[in-house]
Write a structure and sequence with these properties.
single chain, 19% strand, Gyrase A, domain 2, alpha+beta, four-stranded antiparallel sheet, 4 strands, 3 helices, 190 residues
Length: 190
């Protein structure tokens, strides 16, 4: 005899497949929830770790910035002190120069020539004076030109001055201080 199964097996099969699908779906949802939870935990842990490292780095950067500011302040102070020292050394080095200049004026002054006024502007000296004759003025110019301290004497004016004598002349001349004549310690001690 033939066996015929009249039970609703298709519905039972559908119900079984539906139960398996829901079970699998639940497993996937639970698995996905676990994966998301683990990923969230790992990411939070990594972010906290990175925040800790960032805070540590920021603390060190701040301390280094303070040290850099201190170093910059010290460099600025050092530059100011070096500038002061250079100015003081320049003043100390140039102290005997004016004495040497006046000494050279006396050494180059020929007889019969008298200075009335000396004016210094930077490296240029203007001399006003009176000479007994034109020859004395030219002698003064030769002596100034031959000096180590002066160069380029230039006669700017000669005017007859009979108040001092028949051939007397008032003159004005300009001379440049020579940059090659730098005072040394030996010169200052002489």
């Amino acid at each position: 005899m033939a066996r015929i199964n009249l039970l609703p097996w298709r519905e039972a099969r559908r119900e079984q497949l539906k139960q398996e699908f829901l079970g699998n779906l639940g497993s996937v949802v639970i698995g996905a929830g676990l994966i998301i939870g683990i990923a969230y935990f790992v990411m939070n842990n990594a972010m906290e770790s990175q925040s800790t490292r960032n805070a540590y780095m920021q603390k060190n950067i701040d301390s280094l910035n303070e040290e850099v500011q201190e170093i910059d302040a010290l460099k600025s102070r050092r530059e100011q002190l070096i500038d002061r020292m250079n100015i003081i050394q320049g003043l100390q080095g140039n102290r005997p120069v004016i004495v040497r200049i006046f000494d050279q004026f006396v050494r180059t002054l020929p007889d019969g020539v008298y200075y009335q006024r000396l004016l210094r502007t930077e490296q240029r000296l203007t001399i006003d004076g009176t000479a007994e004759s034109n020859n004395r003025v030219s002698n003064l110019m030769r002596r100034l030109d031959g000096s180590d301290w002066f160069s380029d004497p230039n006669l700017t004016a000669v005017v007859a001055n009979p108040a001092f004598g028949e051939q007397a002349n008032s003159f004005s001349l300009a001379v440049t201080l020579s940059t090659s004549a730098t005072p040394s310690i030996a010169d200052a001690e002489e």
